[in-house]
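User: Can you predict the 3D structure for this chain?
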Amino acid sequence: MWMYLGLLAALFLGLHSLCKKHAVQGNEVFPVLLGTVSSGFLFVATFYIISKIYPDYALANGYNFQQIDSSKHGYIFIKSMLMASSWILAYQALKHLPLTIVTPIRSAGPFFTFIGAIILYKESPNLYQWIGFFLIIFSVMLYSRIGKKEGIDFKRNKWIFAIIGATFFGASSGLYDKFLIQNLELNPQTLQFWFCLYTILILLVILSITWFPYPKKRKAFKFRWSIIAVGVLLQAADYFYFKALQDPEAMIMLLSAIKRSQLIIAVVIGGIVFKEKYKRQKLVPLTGILIGVFLILYS
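Assistant: Here is the predicted structure, written as C-alpha coordinates:
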Protein backbone atom coordinates (compact mmCIF):
# COMPACT_ATOMS: atom_id res chain seq x y z
CA MET A 1 0.00 0.00 0.00
CA TRP A 2 2.81 2.46 0.82
CA MET A 3 4.08 2.28 -2.77
CA TYR A 4 0.64 3.28 -4.11
CA LEU A 5 0.57 6.19 -1.65
CA GLY A 6 4.00 7.19 -2.97
CA LEU A 7 2.65 7.22 -6.54
CA LEU A 8 -0.25 9.44 -5.45
CA ALA A 9 2.27 11.81 -3.87
CA ALA A 10 4.19 11.84 -7.18
CA LEU A 11 1.04 12.74 -9.11
CA PHE A 12 0.32 15.76 -6.93
CA LEU A 13 4.00 16.79 -6.97
CA GLY A 14 4.01 16.80 -10.78
CA LEU A 15 0.97 19.09 -10.88
CA HIS A 16 2.58 21.17 -8.12
CA SER A 17 5.73 21.70 -10.24
CA LEU A 18 3.69 22.97 -13.20
CA CYS A 19 1.76 25.45 -11.06
CA LYS A 20 4.96 26.57 -9.31
CA LYS A 21 6.62 27.51 -12.61
CA HIS A 22 3.54 29.58 -13.51
CA ALA A 23 3.45 31.25 -10.07
CA VAL A 24 7.06 32.52 -10.10
CA GLN A 25 7.14 33.93 -13.65
CA GLY A 26 7.79 37.67 -13.39
CA ASN A 27 7.32 37.59 -9.62
CA GLU A 28 9.50 38.03 -6.55
CA VAL A 29 10.31 34.60 -5.19
CA PHE A 30 9.84 35.19 -1.45
CA PRO A 31 6.27 36.56 -1.50
CA VAL A 32 5.26 33.76 -3.88
CA LEU A 33 6.75 31.21 -1.50
CA LEU A 34 4.98 32.82 1.45
CA GLY A 35 1.71 32.74 -0.48
CA THR A 36 2.04 29.07 -1.39
CA VAL A 37 2.97 27.96 2.13
CA SER A 38 0.20 30.11 3.63
CA SER A 39 -2.36 28.62 1.20
CA GLY A 40 -1.29 25.13 2.20
CA PHE A 41 -1.43 26.07 5.86
CA LEU A 42 -4.99 27.44 5.56
CA PHE A 43 -5.99 24.21 3.83
CA VAL A 44 -4.64 22.10 6.71
CA ALA A 45 -5.83 24.60 9.35
CA THR A 46 -9.41 24.08 8.15
CA PHE A 47 -9.22 20.47 9.26
CA TYR A 48 -7.49 21.54 12.48
CA ILE A 49 -10.39 23.85 13.37
CA ILE A 50 -12.92 21.12 12.56
CA SER A 51 -11.04 18.71 14.81
CA LYS A 52 -11.33 21.18 17.70
CA ILE A 53 -15.03 21.89 17.16
CA TYR A 54 -16.06 18.33 16.26
CA PRO A 55 -13.36 16.06 17.74
CA ASP A 56 -15.40 12.84 17.45
CA TYR A 57 -16.22 13.50 13.79
CA ALA A 58 -12.57 14.32 13.02
CA LEU A 59 -11.33 11.20 14.78
CA ALA A 60 -13.83 9.02 12.91
CA ASN A 61 -12.65 10.47 9.60
CA GLY A 62 -8.95 10.07 10.33
CA TYR A 63 -7.67 13.61 10.72
CA ASN A 64 -7.14 14.01 14.44
CA PHE A 65 -4.30 16.31 15.56
CA GLN A 66 -1.94 15.20 18.31
CA GLN A 67 -0.95 17.16 21.39
CA ILE A 68 2.86 17.37 21.31
CA ASP A 69 5.48 18.57 23.79
CA SER A 70 8.10 21.29 23.32
CA SER A 71 10.84 18.86 22.26
CA LYS A 72 8.76 17.63 19.33
CA HIS A 73 8.03 21.22 18.37
CA GLY A 74 11.79 21.75 18.24
CA TYR A 75 12.24 18.77 15.92
CA ILE A 76 9.51 20.08 13.62
CA PHE A 77 11.13 23.52 13.58
CA ILE A 78 14.36 21.92 12.32
CA LYS A 79 12.39 20.41 9.44
CA SER A 80 10.94 23.85 8.69
CA MET A 81 14.47 25.29 8.51
CA LEU A 82 15.60 22.54 6.13
CA MET A 83 12.62 22.91 3.80
CA ALA A 84 12.63 26.72 3.91
CA SER A 85 16.27 26.63 2.74
CA SER A 86 15.41 24.11 0.03
CA TRP A 87 12.39 26.05 -1.22
CA ILE A 88 14.14 29.43 -1.25
CA LEU A 89 16.98 28.05 -3.37
CA ALA A 90 14.63 26.04 -5.60
CA TYR A 91 12.25 28.94 -6.27
CA GLN A 92 15.14 31.27 -7.13
CA ALA A 93 16.55 28.67 -9.55
CA LEU A 94 13.12 27.97 -11.05
CA LYS A 95 12.67 31.65 -11.81
CA HIS A 96 15.88 31.77 -13.86
CA LEU A 97 16.09 28.26 -15.37
CA PRO A 98 13.78 26.18 -17.63
CA LEU A 99 11.49 23.73 -15.84
CA THR A 100 12.90 20.93 -17.99
CA ILE A 101 16.35 21.61 -16.51
CA VAL A 102 15.34 22.26 -12.90
CA THR A 103 13.08 19.23 -12.45
CA PRO A 104 15.60 16.60 -13.63
CA ILE A 105 18.34 18.04 -11.41
CA ARG A 106 15.91 17.84 -8.50
CA SER A 107 15.48 14.20 -9.47
CA ALA A 108 19.03 13.63 -8.20
CA GLY A 109 17.53 13.84 -4.70
CA PRO A 110 17.41 10.02 -4.47
CA PHE A 111 21.24 10.08 -4.61
CA PHE A 112 21.47 11.82 -1.24
CA THR A 113 18.49 9.92 0.15
CA PHE A 114 19.94 6.62 -1.04
CA ILE A 115 23.24 7.19 0.78
CA GLY A 116 21.51 8.50 3.90
CA ALA A 117 19.14 5.54 3.99
CA ILE A 118 22.08 3.13 3.94
CA ILE A 119 24.06 4.96 6.63
CA LEU A 120 21.27 6.10 8.96
CA TYR A 121 18.56 3.48 8.54
CA LYS A 122 20.65 0.49 7.38
CA GLU A 123 18.49 0.01 4.29
CA SER A 124 20.24 -2.54 2.07
CA PRO A 125 20.17 -2.00 -1.72
CA ASN A 126 20.43 -4.95 -4.08
CA LEU A 127 21.98 -5.13 -7.56
CA TYR A 128 18.92 -3.73 -9.38
CA GLN A 129 18.72 -0.82 -6.96
CA TRP A 130 22.38 0.04 -7.51
CA ILE A 131 21.94 -0.08 -11.30
CA GLY A 132 18.81 2.07 -11.09
CA PHE A 133 20.51 4.52 -8.79
CA PHE A 134 23.53 5.10 -11.08
CA LEU A 135 21.29 5.22 -14.16
CA ILE A 136 19.36 8.11 -12.57
CA ILE A 137 22.59 9.99 -11.78
CA PHE A 138 24.01 9.39 -15.28
CA SER A 139 20.76 10.57 -16.88
CA VAL A 140 20.82 13.78 -14.84
CA MET A 141 24.37 14.41 -16.08
CA LEU A 142 23.10 14.17 -19.66
CA TYR A 143 20.86 17.15 -18.96
CA SER A 144 23.93 19.31 -18.44
CA ARG A 145 24.87 18.80 -22.09
CA ILE A 146 21.38 19.79 -23.22
CA GLY A 147 21.38 22.74 -20.82
CA LYS A 148 24.42 24.25 -22.58
CA LYS A 149 22.35 24.49 -25.80
CA GLU A 150 20.02 26.83 -23.92
CA GLY A 151 22.93 29.03 -22.88
CA ILE A 152 23.19 27.43 -19.44
CA ASP A 153 26.74 26.64 -18.32
CA PHE A 154 26.42 24.13 -15.50
CA LYS A 155 29.84 25.06 -14.13
CA ARG A 156 29.35 28.85 -13.99
CA ASN A 157 25.63 29.41 -13.63
CA LYS A 158 24.88 30.23 -9.98
CA TRP A 159 21.28 29.03 -10.31
CA ILE A 160 22.55 25.54 -11.07
CA PHE A 161 24.36 25.57 -7.72
CA ALA A 162 21.19 26.89 -6.11
CA ILE A 163 19.09 23.99 -7.39
CA ILE A 164 21.78 21.49 -6.33
CA GLY A 165 21.74 23.02 -2.83
CA ALA A 166 17.95 22.87 -2.81
CA THR A 167 18.13 19.20 -3.76
CA PHE A 168 20.53 18.44 -0.91
CA PHE A 169 18.40 20.20 1.72
CA GLY A 170 15.26 18.56 0.32
CA ALA A 171 16.82 15.09 0.51
CA SER A 172 18.01 15.78 4.07
CA SER A 173 14.45 16.74 5.00
CA GLY A 174 13.20 13.53 3.39
CA LEU A 175 15.49 11.42 5.55
CA TYR A 176 14.45 13.46 8.58
CA ASP A 177 10.77 12.78 7.79
CA LYS A 178 11.23 9.08 8.48
CA PHE A 179 12.59 9.93 11.93
CA LEU A 180 9.68 12.28 12.65
CA ILE A 181 7.01 9.85 11.47
CA GLN A 182 8.38 6.53 12.73
CA ASN A 183 10.56 7.42 15.73
CA LEU A 184 8.59 10.37 17.13
CA GLU A 185 5.28 8.84 15.93
CA LEU A 186 3.90 12.11 14.59
CA ASN A 187 0.86 11.65 12.36
CA PRO A 188 0.81 13.41 8.93
CA GLN A 189 -1.69 16.16 9.74
CA THR A 190 0.04 17.17 12.99
CA LEU A 191 3.40 17.38 11.24
CA GLN A 192 1.93 19.32 8.31
CA PHE A 193 0.14 21.86 10.52
CA TRP A 194 3.09 22.85 12.69
CA PHE A 195 5.63 22.55 9.89
CA CYS A 196 3.68 25.03 7.75
CA LEU A 197 3.19 27.42 10.66
CA TYR A 198 6.89 27.53 11.52
CA THR A 199 7.86 27.89 7.85
CA ILE A 200 5.54 30.89 7.54
CA LEU A 201 7.21 32.52 10.56
CA ILE A 202 10.67 31.96 9.02
CA LEU A 203 9.56 33.47 5.71
CA LEU A 204 7.99 36.48 7.44
CA VAL A 205 11.35 37.27 9.05
CA ILE A 206 13.09 37.08 5.65
CA LEU A 207 10.39 39.17 3.93
CA SER A 208 10.54 41.83 6.64
CA ILE A 209 14.13 42.47 5.49
CA THR A 210 14.00 41.81 1.74
CA TRP A 211 10.49 42.72 0.57
CA PHE A 212 8.10 44.52 2.95
CA PRO A 213 10.25 47.70 3.29
CA TYR A 214 10.34 48.24 -0.51
CA PRO A 215 7.12 49.69 -2.05
CA LYS A 216 8.29 49.09 -5.64
CA LYS A 217 8.75 45.38 -4.98
CA ARG A 218 5.34 45.13 -3.33
CA LYS A 219 3.62 46.86 -6.26
CA ALA A 220 5.40 44.61 -8.77
CA PHE A 221 3.99 41.49 -7.15
CA LYS A 222 1.30 39.75 -9.22
CA PHE A 223 -1.12 37.44 -7.45
CA ARG A 224 -2.04 34.36 -9.51
CA TRP A 225 -4.40 31.46 -8.90
CA SER A 226 -1.43 29.12 -9.23
CA ILE A 227 -0.01 30.42 -5.92
CA ILE A 228 -2.97 28.90 -4.07
CA ALA A 229 -2.85 25.76 -6.21
CA VAL A 230 0.83 25.18 -5.37
CA GLY A 231 0.13 25.25 -1.64
CA VAL A 232 -2.87 22.92 -1.77
CA LEU A 233 -1.22 20.43 -4.16
CA LEU A 234 1.92 20.31 -2.02
CA GLN A 235 -0.10 19.55 1.12
CA ALA A 236 -1.95 16.78 -0.72
CA ALA A 237 1.37 15.30 -1.89
CA ASP A 238 2.91 15.55 1.60
CA TYR A 239 -0.12 13.90 3.18
CA PHE A 240 0.13 10.79 0.99
CA TYR A 241 3.91 10.74 1.40
CA PHE A 242 3.70 10.91 5.20
CA LYS A 243 0.95 8.27 5.21
CA ALA A 244 3.27 6.00 3.24
CA LEU A 245 6.06 6.60 5.78
CA GLN A 246 3.78 5.47 8.60
CA ASP A 247 4.08 1.92 7.27
CA PRO A 248 6.95 0.26 9.21
CA GLU A 249 7.97 -1.58 6.03
CA ALA A 250 8.28 1.62 3.97
CA MET A 251 11.80 2.26 2.67
CA ILE A 252 12.68 5.94 2.36
CA MET A 253 15.10 5.38 -0.53
CA LEU A 254 12.40 3.64 -2.57
CA LEU A 255 9.78 6.26 -1.73
CA SER A 256 12.21 8.97 -2.80
CA ALA A 257 12.69 7.19 -6.13
CA ILE A 258 8.96 6.62 -6.66
CA LYS A 259 8.35 10.35 -6.22
CA ARG A 260 10.62 10.98 -9.23
CA SER A 261 7.86 9.69 -11.52
CA GLN A 262 6.49 13.23 -11.26
CA LEU A 263 8.96 13.92 -14.10
CA ILE A 264 6.44 12.59 -16.61
CA ILE A 265 4.09 15.46 -15.82
CA ALA A 266 6.67 18.15 -15.11
CA VAL A 267 8.91 17.59 -18.14
CA VAL A 268 6.50 16.42 -20.83
CA ILE A 269 3.48 18.61 -20.06
CA GLY A 270 5.64 21.45 -18.71
CA GLY A 271 7.71 21.52 -21.90
CA ILE A 272 4.52 21.92 -23.94
CA VAL A 273 2.77 24.46 -21.71
CA PHE A 274 5.80 26.73 -21.25
CA LYS A 275 7.13 26.12 -24.80
CA GLU A 276 10.63 25.27 -23.63
CA LYS A 277 13.31 24.20 -26.10
CA TYR A 278 14.88 20.82 -26.91
CA LYS A 279 11.96 18.82 -25.53
CA ARG A 280 12.73 15.77 -27.68
CA GLN A 281 16.39 15.65 -26.63
CA LYS A 282 15.33 15.92 -22.99
CA LEU A 283 13.13 12.84 -23.38
CA VAL A 284 16.28 10.68 -23.71
CA PRO A 285 17.68 11.31 -20.20
CA LEU A 286 14.09 11.44 -18.92
CA THR A 287 13.65 7.87 -20.16
CA GLY A 288 16.87 6.91 -18.41
CA ILE A 289 15.61 8.35 -15.12
CA LEU A 290 12.29 6.53 -15.42
CA ILE A 291 14.06 3.23 -16.20
CA GLY A 292 16.21 3.79 -13.12
CA VAL A 293 13.09 4.38 -11.02
CA PHE A 294 11.51 1.24 -12.51
CA LEU A 295 14.57 -0.87 -11.64
CA ILE A 296 14.44 0.33 -8.04
CA LEU A 297 10.71 -0.44 -7.84
CA TYR A 298 11.14 -3.78 -9.60
CA SER A 299 13.82 -4.84 -7.16
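The two ends are 16 Å apart (CA to CA). Residues 2-56+68-298 form one domain.
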